[in-house]
Fold this sequence. Notes:
Elements: E1 2-3, E2 6-18, E3 24-36, E4 38-43, E5 48-52, H1 64-76, E6 81-86, H2 97-112, H3 119-127, H4 135-138, E7 142-145, E8 150-153, E9 162-168, H5 174-180, H6 190-194, H7 201-204, H8 210-216, H9 218-229, E10 234-237, E11 244-248, E12 263-269
Parallel strand pairs: 5-6
Antiparallel strand pairs: 1-4, 2-3, 3-7, 4-6, 7-8, 9-11, 9-12, 10-11
Helix pairs in contact: 1-2, 2-3, 8-9
Amino acid sequence: xxxxxxxxxxxxxxxxxxxxxxxxxxxxxxxxxxxxxxxxxxxxxxxxxxxxxxxxxxxxxxxxxxxxxxxxxxxxxxxxxxxxxxxxxxxxxxxxxxxxxxxxxxxxxxxxxxxxxxxxxxxxxxxxxxxxxxxxxxxxxxxxxxxxxxxxxxxxxxxxxxxxxxxxxxxxxxxxxxxxxxxxxxxxxxxxxxxxxxxxxxxxxxxxxxxxxxxxxxxxxxxxxxxxxxxxxxxxxxxxxxxxxxxxxxxxxxxxxxxxxxxxxxxxxxx
Length: 271
């Protein structure tokens, strides 16, 4: 079976407060985008995971795709599989690539083995793998609160807008990002800010991680400024970084990105 796990961007990210359990309460908006990986599995005598397009971090068993498979295999006595994951979504980028891979694995197993799990049940399984994994079950524009695991559908379409995505060769760990951020609630709820015209987002909707991440990695601020110079209506960092994106009403011109860091870039029209 072959599926194509897609990425997401965060529009606005408020780190509201630190929780007694050491996590943080968040307020953010997830928007799915078409940049995707390819995930395929077939029956096999022994379960193996092959990752193409990037080196495998850690051992195969610690990969989120394998953890997703083992989770359902243990619950439903599934047979062994040969699994191949071809990576296109940049890692360490705040685009949710690993979470998407895990959630799509859960959904694909449900379909392939006719487990007849509802979306609510699929979300519960995905949530065992990571806070935002469950978002990719329904995979629609969503307001997220809690630790990024409490979802509310939100009607906002960016169809027809062009997304420019730039990922410099910088890895920002989740621990690094949270260690430097200063939690505080916004004066205006994100849902109200998202209702504003996109032309007003630049001065109203922010990502709280940008202050500390830009100080540690100035090239990120430079990329954001370059996007506005190119005519972006809104530009921001996604998640805890390090991918930067810009929304353009028309397709932006191609260009070479920052000379101070190697960058991958993607440009496509949103659906």
